[in-house]
Specification:
Layout lengths: L10 E5 L3 H12 L3 E5 L3 H9 L3 E2 L2 H5 L5 E4 L12 H8 L4 E2 L1 H8 L13 E6 L4 H14 L4 E5 L16 E5 L2 H4 L9 E4 L7 H4 L2 H13 L5 E5 L3 H10 L8 E6 L8 E6 L2 E6 L2 E7 L8 H17 L4 H9 L9 E6 L2 E5 L6 H9 L4 E5 L18 E7 L3 H6 L5 E5 L1 H11 L5 E4 L12 H13 L3
Parallel strand pairs: 1-2, 1-4, 2-3, 4-5, 6-8, 6-9, 7-8, 9-10, 10-11, 11-12, 16-20, 17-18, 17-20, 18-19
Antiparallel strand pairs: 12-13, 13-14, 15-16
Length: 463
């Protein structure tokens, strides 16, 4: 655990008793703070009390004498409207932070003065590919023999990490909910994968969403920035951070185009990763037969991870060995099973249109299982990936309405079991039954993980 610095003797209110909230409360106590907790849910408050934490309603004198409010990522602090407790804290002039901000201000300690090599923090953000890129960086570092830990929006809460050791590397996956509020953001290497519409109600539009991601780069000034420049926002961000064309602090990641210019670039094109510096190619890796990284979107993830490792001076041949031994993440283009020549792939993490479009572009002859709780903007923008779809099978409570907006042949199935059964019955050898919903899961499942697990259980029971 990372004890929180700078709060000893202070009264701190922690809102939200999920994973990050519980850990933050314990880390604050370890740092000497007097901690009060609250969650609007009775079950979450019961968990907090069982963990030995005091729960006090912040709207019933719970903010008296409070010096700091620490909120969980899922609790809105501004848009679409602030949680009442946060609104009251802001009216009283009480600072509001989250566990990410606490981590960045507490991770470095006086023990670092005795280290031979200072630890480094890598932070990954973006719309899609964050989890795969973060896990891949962690895997590549492990293969390279570097001591490392992985946390944030993946795996452990940031304050649940072990204190740093000499030369250690911390890899953090950070969502826009986490970056937009953290009062301290000082990574050594920051990664921006890409940008597509998501969580727009929380950020009051696309500009607010990008601004939340941009804070990771503007607040702390990372030593290196690895930036996907396929979208205008990434191009703008790279240009804003660079002092000159050949600024080697910036590594640009590009997809489906030939590198040009004299900047440091890592490109994915026609299944190959290439690194170029000052207009000259210096390394190349064939990604076409790495089964855990299928499709252009995963090749983009590989490029981002490659850029980070190169910024840490790891040789291309070591990175290539790590790419080939990577097993992938659950629910992200995850191969489940081959039944009589029919492949089943679980990409339940494709919870928005852009992620689903990239999954569809990674395979051919697709029997597409899709649908669920639609996000703002609907399902427009699926792009060229639809050309790979033979037929769609719509699930979810609004499956009929969802299917009506699809530009391919579709069948209303509603349930996952019926969708898998129909897709399997109508498939031929060479087809791919792909779960890539393009929606949130909460109309039928507690999480995208639960949705993916259901899909895999049904597939594994096929005769």
């Amino acid at each position: 655990m990372i004890p929180v610095q700078g709060t000893s003797g202070q009264t701190v209110m922690v809102l939200g008793m999920g994973r990050s909230g519980l850990v933050a409360a314990k880390a604050l106590q370890a740092g000497g703070a007097d901690v009060r907790c609250w969650d609007d849910g009775h079950a979450a408050r019961a968990r907090a009390k069982k963990a030995g934490l005091d729960c006090l309603d912040p709207l019933k004198n719970g903010l008296n004498d409070v010096s700091l409010v620490v909120t969980s990522p899922g609790i809105p602090h501004m848009y679409p409207k602030p949680h009442p407790a946060i609104a009251e804290a802001l009216r009283k002039g009480i600072p509001v932070d989250n566990d990410i901000g606490l981590f960045f201000r507490s991770f470095a300690t006086r023990d670092w003065d005795t280290f031979d090599v200072a630890p480094k923090i890598i932070a990954v953000t973006g719309s899609n590919g964050k989890s795969t890129t973060s896990a891949l960086i962690y895997h590549l570092l492990t293969i390279a023999g570097r001591r490392c830990q992985l946390a944030g929006n993946i795996g452990r809460g940031v304050l649940d990490l072990e204190p740093a050791a000499s030369g250690e590397v911390i890899v953090l996956e950070l969502s826009s909910f986490q970056t937009e509020l953290a009062r301290s953001l000082t990574p050594d290497i920051a990664v921006f994968t890409n940008l597509s519409p998501d969580h727009l109600d929380r950020h009051a539009g696309y500009g607010g969403y990008f601004a939340a991601k941009r804070r990771l780069f503007s607040e702390g000034g990372p030593d290196h920035a690895v930036i996907g420049v396929d979208e205008p926002e990434g191009l703008y961000l790279a240009a804003q951070l660079a002092d000159r064309v050949t600024d080697d602090r910036i590594i640009r990641v590009i997809s489906n185009q030939k590198p040009s210019g004299n900047s440091w670039q890592v490109a994915a094109r026609k299944g190959f990763l290439s690194e170029s510096r000052k207009g000259r190619q210096v390394a190349s890796i064939d990604l076409r037969h790495i089964e855990s990284l299928p499709g252009p979107h995963n090749h983009q993830n590989a490029c981002a991870a490659y850029g980070v490792l190169r910024a840490l001076h790891v040789a291309p041949r070591v990175i290539e060995a790590g790419l080939r031994s990577f097993n992938g993440l659950p629910h992200r283009s995850q191969f489940v099973r081959d039944v009589k020549g029919i492949k089943f792939v679980n990409d339940s993490k494709a919870t928005n249109v852009d992620a689903a479009s990239k999954a569809l572009a990674a395979f051919g002859n697709i029997r597409w299982i899709c649908g669920g709780l639609q996000k703002e903007g609907g399902i427009s923008g699926l792009g060229d990936g639809l050309a790979n779809v033979i037929k769609a099978y719509a699930i979810g409570r609004e499956a009929k309405a969802f299917a009506m907006h699809l530009e391919v042949e579709s069948e209303v199935c509603t349930t996952m079991s019926k969708a898998v059964a129909q897709a399997y019955a109508q498939s031929a050898p060479g087809d791919v039954v792909l779960l890539a919903p393009a929606t949130a899961s909460f109309d039928q499942y507690d999480s995208f993980e639960a949705r993916g697990e259901d899909f895999m259980a049904i597939v594994n029971n096929l005769s």
